[in-house]
Amino acid sequence: MGIWKTRVNVFRPLSKALLTCATTVEDQPSHPGALLLLRAASIIAIGEIVILTFAGMRWVGRRSSREALLALFFLSRISGIAGAQEAPGNHEKAAPAAAGAFVDVTKASGVHFQHLASHTSKKYLLETMGSGVALFDYDNDGRLDIFLVNGAPITDPTSKGSVPQKDGPRAWNRLYHQRTDGTFEDVTEKAGLQGVGYGMGVAVGDYDNDGFEDLFVTGYGRNTLYHNNGNGTFTDVTEQSGLAGSGWSTSAAWVDYDNDGLLDLVVLRYVKWDWDDYWCGEHKEGYRSYCHPDMFPAIAPLLYHNDGNGHFTEVASQAGFAKPGKGLGVAIADYDRDGRIDIVIANDSMPEFLYHNDGGGKFTEVGLASEIALDDNGKTFAGMGVDFADYDNDGWPDLVVTDLAEQRYALYKNAGDGSFAYASGASGISSMTVLHSGWGIRFLDYDNDGWKDLLVAQGHDLDTIEKTSPQLHYREPLLLAKNVDGKTFLDVSASSGAVFTQKWVARGLAIGDLDNDGRIDAVVTTNDGPAYILHNETRTENHWISLLLTGHKSNRDAIGAEVKLTTKDGSQYATVTTTGSYLSSSDKRVLFGLGASPSADIEIRWPSGVVETLHDVHGDRVVKIDEPVEGAPKGQESR
Questions:
Q1: pLDDT band at 18 (very low <50, low <70, confident <90, very high)
Q2: Confidence class of residue 266 from pLDDT cuts 50, 70 and 90?
C-alpha cells in the first residue's frame, strides 16, 4: 500500500504543473516553453497500470483509480491544445492548417449495404472484426466501382470445426457498378460475386495480365479467387488456382516479389481459432466480452508464387516468410531502395513484422532490427491497420500502424539506413490518438498541397468497453490528420465536415478518386452496420495529377513501381499499390497534389528495372503511362 500512496501524492504536484502549463498555452498560444512541455506529456497503459509522465515527474497508478481518470482527462485536454498549435520551433513559418471538406453521399449514391456480423451471446471473436472494401475499375470504363465483403450467419452456439455459410441476399458480398452520373447500381448477381462463407478482406490485382482486375476475397475457413472475364462477370477459379488456403485469413496483398512480371499473393492469417466457448470479461450479466488474442496461438502467413498458368504455389517456408504472427494489416514498399519490394505486417498484440526482400525469392524478417516491431517504450501493441508511404517527402517510405485506445497509433520515420525512428510523439500522433482505436488507415493528400495526410477508420473492438473504461468509446468518429510540412500532424476532423461527428464501429477503409475530379474520396465499412461513401469536396486552388500506369515487361498493374514527382516546391514519392489499410484494397492510380504548380517532372522506376522520365507533364487530369518497351505506346493521356 505504501508505494501506491506515494505515487498518488506525486500526482498532486504533477497535475498542478500540467494544468498550469495548459492554462498558459490557452492564454498565450505562442508560448514556446509551455507548448514544448505539453507535447512531451504522455500517458501509457500497461494492463491495469497507468503511467503519466510530465515535466520530469512520473505518476503510476491503477487504471480504475480517480487519478487515472483525471490523467486521461488531462491528456485529452492536451491533445486539443497542442493539436491546435504549430510545431515547436516552427511557429513563424507554419501556415494555419487547411481543413478538409468530406460529405457523406451514401444515401444519394444508391449504395445500400449492411454488414452481417452475426453477434451471439458467446462473443465469438470473429463477430467483432468487420470486413473490407475495394475500389477498382472492373470494366475499364474509367470510373471506380465498389466491392464490399460480407459475413455470414453464426449459430448460437456454433460447434467446433464449423465454417459459416451465406444463407441468402442478406449475407452476400456486393459489387456496385458506377454509372456515368456518379450513382451506383448493384450488379452482384450479374457478376456472380455473391460469395461463400464468412468473408473478411479483399485484394485487387490483375494476376494473369489480361487487362481486367481480378478479386481475391479472404475469409474464415476458405479464401476465394475470382477471375474477371472481361464481360462484366467473374468466375470462381479457387480450386484450379490452389488459393483456397486454410484457417482464419484476414488481409491480402498482390505483389510481384520476384519481379518476373506476374503478381504473387500474400495472405495474412490471424490466429489459430475455433468455436470454443470461452468466457472473457467479468462474470456478470452484460459484461462478457470478446477474448484477447493472447488466448490464441499465432499462425504463419501464406505466400503464393504465381506460376504463370493460372496456378499458384505456396512457398512461405522456403521463402523465409513463415514466422508465426497474428496478422491483420499488410502493406508494401521498397523501404531501403534496393530495387526489391518489402512487406510489412501489422500484428495484433505481438511484435510487428517487416520482411526484407533479399532477392532470389527469399525474405528475412527484420522488424526488431529495423526498430518497427515495438513502440518507443519497447512494448507490443494491437497492430491492425497499416500504410507504408513517404509522408515527409525525403524519398524513404515511412510506416504508420493503428492500434487500440491507450496505446497510441505508431508512426515510424524511415531513417534511410535500414532503420526507423518512432515518431508518434514528436509528430502529434500520440496525443490525438491515445483515447482512440484505429483500424483502416491510409496516407492521402486530401487538399493537394503536396503533403500526405492521414485518414483513419475508428471504433473499439469491445462493445462493453464503456462499462469498464468510461473514458473510451465503442463507436467513434473518423480521424482526419493534416500533415504540416512533413513534420507534424494536426487533427482537423472537427472542422472538416459533419461526417466527422458521426460515431461508427468503423473497420475497413479504401481510398480513390471516385468522380475523377482530382480529390481523393473514401469508402468506410462498419461492423454489423452500413458502408459509407465520403465525397471529398475540399475547396482548394491546388493542382493535381493522377497517374494510371500499365506495365508490359512488368506486371500489368505496375504494382511495386516507384514514382518520383518533382515541381518547383520539391519532390514527392509513391509506390503503386492496391494494398494497405485494413482488409481493404484501394485505387491503383497514384494521385499527387501539385500545390501551386500546374505541371511536374515524373520519374518512374518500373518493377522490371526500366527507368522512365517524363518532363513538364501538365496536371489537373488523369494521365495514362505505358511502360516503355518495344511495341507499346508511351504517354497516352485521358481525363
A1: low
A2: very high
Structure confidence at residue 98 (pLDDT): 81
Answer whether the bond into residue 607 is a cis peptide, omega within 30°.
Answer: no
**Bond into 157 cis (ω within 30):** yes
3-state SS assignment for residue 128: helix
Q: How far is CA 52 from the centre of its chain?
A: 29
pTM value is 0.86
For residue 540 the three cell numbers come to 482548394
Q: How far apart are CA 231 and CA 105, in angstroms?
A: 29
Cα-only R_g, the chain: 24
**Cell numbers 516479389 label which residue?**
257
Task: Report which secondary-structure segment, H or E, holds 82.
Answer: helix 66-82
Residue position matching grid coordinates 468466375? 235
Helix spans in 141-257 (H): 188-191, 238-241
The per-residue pLDDT for range 185-230, each reduced to its tens digit, is 999 999 999 999 999 999 999 999 999 999 999 999 999 999 999 9
Sign of the Cα pseudo-torsion (622, 625, 626, 632, in order): positive
Cβ distance 353 to 347 under 8 Å? yes
Element (DSSP H or E) covering residue 226: strand 224-228
Q: Please name which of 130, 116, 119 lies closest in space to residue 457, comparing C-alpha atoms.
A: 130
Rounded CA separation 581/577 (Å): 11
Strand 622-626 versus strand 543-550 pairing type: parallel
